[in-house]
Amino acid sequence: MKIIKTGSTYQIYGEDLIVLDKLPAQTYKIGFSKFTGFFLEKQHDLEIKEDKIYGVHEEKANKVLNRFEKSRKNLGVILSGDKGIGKSLFARLLSQKAIENGIPVILVDDFIPGIDDFLNDIKNEVLILFDEFDKTFKSRDDVDPQAQMLSFFDGTSSGKKLFVVTCNEYRNLNEYMINRPGRFHFHFRFEYPTADEVRNYLTDKIDKKYFSEINKVVSFSRKIKLNYDCLSAIALELNEGEKFEETIKDLNIINTHDRKRQYDVQLFTEEGIIFTSENKELDLLNGDTNDIWVEDSEGNSINIEFSADNAIFDNKQNSFIVYGNNVKICDDYEYVDKAKEDIYKNLHCAYIKFSQSYNDYLHYKLI
Q1: Under a CB-based contact definition with an 8 Å cutoff, are residues 29 and 107 in contact?
Q2: pLDDT digit string (tens) for 226-236?
Q3: What is the DSSP string of 282-322?
Q4: Helix, coil or strand: residue 331
């Protein structure tokens, strides 16, 4: 028999009772009973099942733990991005590394009133992972769970905490979590794989005799956003000897018309004049005729027409190209300067170049 005395209350437990001063470095999930309140329940540690981790996950995870070690207060990390592009993998990797460094991991997948006070009472250094925070802590019945957690994230209690929040849509996070590095120091935005990352992934995953299909997938991935879940399924089918054209017809990868990419467009003329247009959302998958207004360095605009069927992916330039014989230049503008009019109404297109727009990304680009 073991007896626990709390204030003037005595509780009797069995011989297996163990009293600890610190949480062992392992994984826990928060539980709640209306009779006993909150508690922690041991879980299996989060596993990484992938043979190879692509991208900069390892580097970023080490960076987080390094900053947490040096910090004297809580440290927050936001992991945002669409489904299937690496948030969960990063969270598992970070959790694994935390445990290796003696830091317990607590999983939170639901909001229960009072959960902030319970977590605040934990004096250990811990990693607290809020999975799909934008969904599990969304407002309901005039209650705003995210707002209630803000003071907890700011907490100054002993035992600093590493908060990790995953979300699909960062716009669904409380406004006081975004652009507040004092509260959430890092915001890692997970983007869709680049052309090189798609190529490297497929090179690792498919048999060499099917390598001829890789360029088709790379080109397709520049038109439609493909996550690693999609690439894994494609690799599986290619290894069965399927051609990519047949594979994409049968897989659960459909055109929902919300996966368009944004491009920076450049029109190169044989006369040496370059016209541009930035952040154009285009569907290069269908065969429809597209028309775009482009502008040169002097502010002169022309309209161009082309069919998406004629867009060819150039691996060296990592861009789509439409050659001049497939481009129509439309210029009905009346120029005051007749010499300029003669030039602009007789332009010859060499080619159009479509490069993925940096506007697809979240963070600032410094040149």
Answers
A1: yes
A2: 999 999 999 99
A3: E--SS--EEEEEEE-TTS-EEEEEEEGGG-EEETTTTEEEE
A4: coil
Query: How far is 3 from 310, CA to CA, in rounded Å?
Result: 79
Domains of the chain (ranges; CATH) run 20-48+55-189 (3.40.50.300), 195-250 (no CATH), 261-360 (no CATH)
Whether residue 309 has pLDDT greater than 70:
yes
Residues 142-187: tens digit of each pLDDT: 889 999 899 889 876 667 999 999 999 899 999 999 999 999 999 9
pLDDT for res 363: 60
Q: How far apart are the first and last CA of the chain?
A: 69
What radius of gyration do the chain's Cα atoms show?
Answer: 27
Average pLDDT over residues 187-203: 92
Separation in Å, CA 19 to CA 104, 127, 352: 17, 22, 71
Taking the whole predicted model, whether its pTM rises above 0.85 is answered as no
The residue behind tokens 């290069």 is 284
Pull the structure tokens for residue 200: 């490297």
| φ, ψ dihedrals at 96, nearest 5° | -60, -45
Amino acid letter, 333: Y
Structure-token match 């120091």, residue found:
185
DSSP state for residue 172 in the 8-state scheme:
G
pLDDT on residue 10? 75
What is the per-residue pLDDT across 114-147, written as a single tens digit (0 to 9) for each? 999 999 999 889 999 999 999 999 888 788 999 9
Residue 165 and residue 173: Cα distance in Å, rounded? 10
